[in-house]
Specification:
Distance between the termini: 32 Å
Largest sheet: 5 strands, mixed
Order of helices and strands: HEHEEEEEEEEEEHEHHHHHHHHH
CATH architecture of the largest domain: Sandwich
CATH class of the largest domain: Mainly Beta
CATH topology of the largest domain: Jelly Rolls
Strand content: 15-25%
Structural class: alpha+beta
Strand order of the largest sheet: 1-8-7-10-5
Oligomer: single chain
Number of strands: 12
């Protein structure tokens, strides 16, 4: 990231002190952070900004113990990225805001989010970087209910999440232990811990929504209804779903439904439906035998021009560019 680019970004520096992380106490003094990633062959970039993550040994997990001084310029990928500094701060620039992540804090960057990350000048700090493929659990019914959590990046620390921070921190530490020790079934263990983490985050999110409303009992009922609705959209996104139909399904007026949907998901109904349809194309575009027009229709778009425009908005490249570069990457990997 250039100095000019950094100057255009509003900074959110957090100067709160955090308790240093004692990795020797957590992992042991003879812990090996390097051999687990010895298979790494480098990243593959698509259309300058799109990175295809090379997971460990064709798995769906890559965890880095990162002590590099390297800047990672604006890019995006289909992985969930979690950054946890062990010592010194680390910076993440997202949506024209730079977040200063202090040691012990946890920063979540959702899949498909354009971001840059870099250390402070002359930093001697280290951090864990988790890259996780969420498609492994995307077809679980309950996963739809936590999608709103992943609509925007968010920072977690002891101050803003005192009731859940330690649980999430401990789960992330256990993930890296499983990964770097290369334990038997380590990938399965990591995803078991990840699902536990999402269940805790989802429950905490629901509790916060409920306590933010005077009629907490009613709000909890709404949360259950919207979780079911998001699961319904996951199963029927390719159909001609309308705001009026979804409002009727929920038993609300379309105006009341629109407000509650935006409050719960962070999206308008139309934007969320488009987002879900574009996500579905990620599984279809690698299949070269499927014409792009057919894919657009298959996921629910009635206009190829609308599909192309929205795909570029969400993925920062055209569907044909995405397919071409992804195919090239697969051939090289093979």
């Amino acid at each position: 990231m250039t100095n000019k680019e950094r100057k255009t970004i509003k900074h959110q520096d957090n100067q709160k002190c955090t308790k240093p992380i004692d990795l020797e106490q957590i992992n042991g003094s003879d812990f090996d952070f390097y051999s687990a990633n010895s298979d790494y062959i480098g990243s593959t970039m698509i259309n300058k900004n799109h990175e295809i993550v090379n997971y460990r040994n064709s798995s769906t997990v890559r965890i880095w113990y990162n002590e590099q001084l390297e800047n990672y310029p604006l890019h995006w990928h289909n992985s969930l990225e979690i950054i946890l500094p062990v010592s010194d701060c680390y910076y993440a620039a997202v949506n024209e805001t730079t977040h200063c992540i202090q040691e012990g804090e946890i920063f979540f960057i959702p899949p498909g989010t354009l971001h840059a990350v870099y250390p402070s000048p002359a930093s001697s700090g280290v951090r864990f970087v988790y890259l996780l493929d969420l498609s492994v659990m995307a077809h679980l019914k309950d996963f739809a209910g936590i999608q709103p959590l992943l609509s925007n990046p968010f920072l977690m620390n002891r101050e803003n999440s005192p009731e859940i921070y330690k649980d999430i921190f401990d789960l992330l530490m256990q993930m890296q232990i499983e990964y770097f020790r290369k334990n038997l079934y380590s990938e399965l263990a990591v995803y078991s811990l990840l699902m536990t983490m999402f269940a805790k985050l989802g429950t905490n999110y629901a509790d916060r929504l409920a306590t933010a409303d005077i009629q907490a009992g009613k709000h909890r009922e709404y949360i259950k209804q919207f979780n079911d609705l998001l699961a319904y959209i996951d199963e029927h996104y390719m159909d001609a779903l309308t705001l009026e139909d979804m409002a009727s399904l929920m038993g609300f007026s379309k105006f009341h439904f629109s407000r509650l949907f935006k409050d719960y998901t962070g999206y308008t109904f139309c934007d969320y439906l488009n987002y879900r349809r574009i996500k579905a194309t990620e599984e279809l575009l690698p299949h070269a035998e499927l014409p792009i027009t057919e894919i657009a229709m298959q996921v629910g778009f009635s206009s190829i021009s609308t599909f192309n425009r929205l795909f570029r908005v969400y993925k920062k490249c055209s569907p044909s560019e995405y397919r071409s570069k992804l195919s090239t990457h697969m051939l090289r990997k093979g």
